[in-house]
Amino acid sequence: MSRGQIMTWAAAAVLAGVAALAIGAPLVAAILGHDPNEVDLLARFAPPSAAHPFGTDDIGRDELLRLLYGGRVSLAVGLTAAVIAATIGTTIGLFAGYFGGRLDALLMRLTDTVIALPLLPLLIVLAAVDLSKLGVPADFANAQETSLYRIVAIIALVGWTTVARLVRATTLSLLTRDFVRAARALGAGPARIMLVHILPNALSPIIVATTLAVGNVILFESVLSFLGLGIQPPIASWGNMLTNAQELIQTDPMLAIWPGLFILATVASCNLLGDALQEALDPRKRLDR
Amino acid sequence: MPGFLTRRAVQSLIVLALMSFVVYGLIGLMPGDPIDLMINANPKLTSADAERLRAIYGLDRPLIERYAAWATDALQGDFGYSRSYNRPVLEILGPRLANTAGLMVSAFVLALALGIPLGIAAAAKAGGGADIVINLFSFVTISMPTFWFALILILVFAVTLGWLPAGGSPPAEAGFFETLRYLVLPVVTLGVVECGAYARFMRAAMIEALRQDWIRTARAKGASPVRVLVRHALRNAMIPIATIAALEFGTLFSGALITETMFARPGMGKLIFDAIMSNDYNLALIGLLFATLLTLIGNLIADLAYTVLDPRISYTDLERDR
User: Fold this and answer.
1) Reduced to 3 states, what is the DSSP secondary structure of residue A95?
2) Residue A61: helix, strand or coil by DSSP?
3) Chain A contact for B138 (CB, 8 A cutoff)
4) Which residues does residue A173 pair with via DSSP β-bridges, in sequence order?
5) What whole-number distance in Å separates Cα of residue A214 and Cα of residue A76?
């Protein structure tokens, strides 16, 4: 096994570990006998102990449990938003590549436009939009879970461009291949050609881009939540756990370190894995030969 | 060639115009209401007054009409007043733009100064020990949330060691070196976060260049490894890097927004964020459009760099690829 492969397996192991911890969070909560949102003002900034393995935060909540539950949120948001963005991008790329002409020009100009936008300021504006002004019922707009859906929606809304370009390019090259021309000669319609002949052959770039996107989504979720615009407390996310960290950095620096380490480990693993997948699926792009 | 650039410039202007409409609409959807904010300041106002104010400011008219009125003013150079500063928007943006430009340019230079040598070193012995270490470092910097890295730097260098200020602006009477000390942590934050991407691009471009026939020829003629690396491979590898650097310069703005917010530096990024948070509609709108303009200019420079640096690429090729 080469050193590169060792890194890939380490990344896969880290991701599997984080996912297992996130899924097993309720079990850990049961063992410790706490709830991640349980406030204990008598135990603020408690040092690590048997009852609180990572200590407690500024209002006495168990830090480990919040990290684990925050991981559930960050991973779920990352996966969902990346998959939705990939679906949008695939659809746009397929249509642009297959139909060409005016539609292609229009869709690609749209893609160029979205790429040209300053991403973070735009996400901040989208995250700050008051949903009730859009006619969304107030009780839904103000519900706790809405911040989850909203963040998935806005990240997916701006995150589809890479996949759209990749799929368009792959579609264009596949259209000239004999099996596609044969299918067309046999009378297959556009829907059949796109879904049966082109999509399966375009899957590898889509999978690579989606894996890399998961990491990026987690980064964007964390910064928006950190700024108070993403996942709303009391729901824990790695980003919003850091919101107060700057004020508390002298009192309890570990509160600032832990969530960031979890983000770093997860995102770096996604990126390493995406990179390895790219090499495995497309040997022409292999760099170290 | 001029035709291509003109077309790209026109396209950028269209994007800017579209963006101004979208952002204008979005700003109207921010929480809070400008008339409510005025009324809060004056308890004597009645709801009839509120209606009248709404009519005076044209807020009862449809979105398109309001946008058209705003756009007409903006095109004539009237960008409106900032609500929280009570001064014309441009007066507030101007000095902060200089701060942000200083931060972005210094961080950009640092990122290139770190990333390019690292990428070359990694490519010189691809697959070797140095390559793996550099690769890992690049992945770490790419995968780090900028705000968290800023926190860690503050924790180590400001709180624990006490070497550098944790943020804010230097006092007015501060000398050159004192001012510089306030710039160190923000620039390092942004520069290090960006350098990993350049190292990876540089490594890929160098490996691609080293694989070419002319490198084999140069080696066969007895050129030293350093000469092959610098004189033959690097010059070709710099072409894609120049393009990527110009493209990334626009995205640097997102990082600057976070860095300025973390270190409480008075710059464009922090200004935009604060304006959005405090319902300062005009300021947020112009700030966002300015950020878009910066990104678009970066993209135009990338287009230009791509073709000017590599005579093998013609503008017609570029147009066909798009």
Assistant:
1) helix
2) coil
3) no
4) none
5) 10
